[in-house]
Amino acid sequence: MKWRVASVAFLLSVVGTGLTWFTLQRPLLALMEVARQGAAHGSREAALLARTIGSLPFLLALDLVLLTLVAYGVLDFMVGRPLRRTEELVEQLGRLELDAAMPESAGPLLSRIQRALSRMTVALQQEQETTRRQVQALRAANARLTQAQTELVSSERLATVGRLAAGVAHEVGNPLAGILGYLSLASARTQDPEVQEFLGRIDQEVQRIDGIVRGLLEIGRPGRGKLGPVDVGHLVETCVQLVKAGRDFSSVRLEFALTPGLLAWADSGSLSQIIINLLLNAVQAMGGEGKVRLATRSEGGDVLLVVEDAGPGIPEEVMPRLFEPFFTTKEPGQGTGLGLAVSRSLAEGMGGRLTAENVPGDGARFSVRLPAV
I want to staple 35 with a disulfide (CB 3.0 to 4.6 A). Which of 12, 50, 82, 134 is the partner? Predict the structure, then answer.
């Protein structure tokens, strides 16, 4: 840009100097003739005039240089600098840097150009904001669709499990009832205390099998008939008392941040099953060593129960399938993959939901949200 301005200034200076020479050419030729005639007669004034005319090319060259500098300064100040700033602005707009400052106008033409650029900048900012909002809306819609798809797949699997469990409960229930009957008869016909103890243990295990089968039956159709006010903090303490005597909890440190008197609209049995499942999963994720934190609080009109562990966290590839039935990351024979699926089903059956996320740093956080009383 500067070289172009300099070229234009030099061209204007050459034109101005040429016009000056062309205008003064005839008078100067006449003066040169007079000077020659005077020099022939030895006139002093004629000699001075001849020297003045001889220095005329130098004066014209100096005039050319001065005109070039003045023209360059004026053109650069009036046109060059505003055009360079306008060019920089256009490049910034090309990079979508829409917060660039608009240069001051230096004339009618540049003023119109800059007003047009200003209007274009405002329009681009509006379009950029509209595009940003649309992208955010699309991301939110995509997240909702992904969640809906995951929940739909999970619901279909739960329905399949429910139908399977119904058949299993029917086929297994009758033999279990027969076993319980024979155990009752055997217990009534023996007086040996050791045998009585063995039969009692067998009866307890059979009862537990019957409870598991009936629990599977509830996966596909969680009930809502036993909902009522439940003190969540007290229930958490009760569940911890039930499980902490186990050997898996011998090296586990439990921390509590329970809000007293916090009532949720829930079923105590279902909520107990959820809490115990989350505690067992947390301990198993840590390998039986570490810290588990249980907290309850009121949030947005709901009761929030949080279980955090200090384990390795949930891998990103596992997170989308975490609540799918029969999906497990445990070793074969150590888990069925139904614990979290049943827990989420129970939470939804009470009008709440169960979510999972990774804790910043290490560990996982499971949150149970239930309606407050």
Answer: 50
* Residue pLDDT, tens place only, 220-254: 555 555 789 999 999 999 888 888 877 788 888 99
What residue type is assigned to position 160 of the chain? T
Tokens of 38: 């005077």
Which residues are CB-contacts of 270 (< 8 A; sequence separation ≥ 6)?
A: 222, 226, 346, 347, 349, 350
How big is the chain by its Cα radius of gyration, in Å?
A: 47
Contact 68, 13 (CB under 8 A): yes
Tokens 């090319």 belong to 57
- 133 by Cβ neighbours in 10 Å (0-12 / 13-18 / 19+) ranks as exposed
Q: What are phi and psi of 318, to 5 degrees?
A: -90, -30
| Residue 293: partners with Cβ closer than 8 Å, 6 or more residues away | 254, 255, 256, 257, 306, 307, 308, 309
Residues 199 and 186: beta-carbon distance below 8 Å: yes
Q: With bands split at pLDDT 50, 70 and 90, how would you rate the model's confidence at 316?
A: confident
The region that residue 42 occupies, defined by phi over 0 for left and psi between -120 and 50 for alpha, beta otherwise, is left
Instruction: Compute the Cα dihedral for 125, 126, 128, 133 and give only its sign.
Output: positive
Average pLDDT over residues 34-43: 58
Distance CA(162)–CA(164), nearest Å, equals 5
Is the distance from CB of 294 to CB of 236 less than 8 angstroms?
yes
Which residues are CB-neighbours of 364 under 8 A, at least 6 positions away? 282, 285, 308, 309, 311, 313, 314, 356, 357, 358
Q: Taking a C-beta distance cutoff of 8 angstroms, is the pair 262, 297 a contact?
A: yes
Provide the CA 278 distance to its chain's centre, in angstroms: 28
Residue 130, pLDDT score = 87
Give 253-283 pLDDT, tens digit per residue: 999 999 998 999 998 888 988 999 899 888 8
Helix or strand holding residue 253 (H, E): strand 251-257
Give residue 255's pLDDT: 92
Q: What is the pTM of this model?
A: 0.50
Q: How far apart (Å, rounded) are the C-alpha atoms in residues 185 and 37?
A: 160
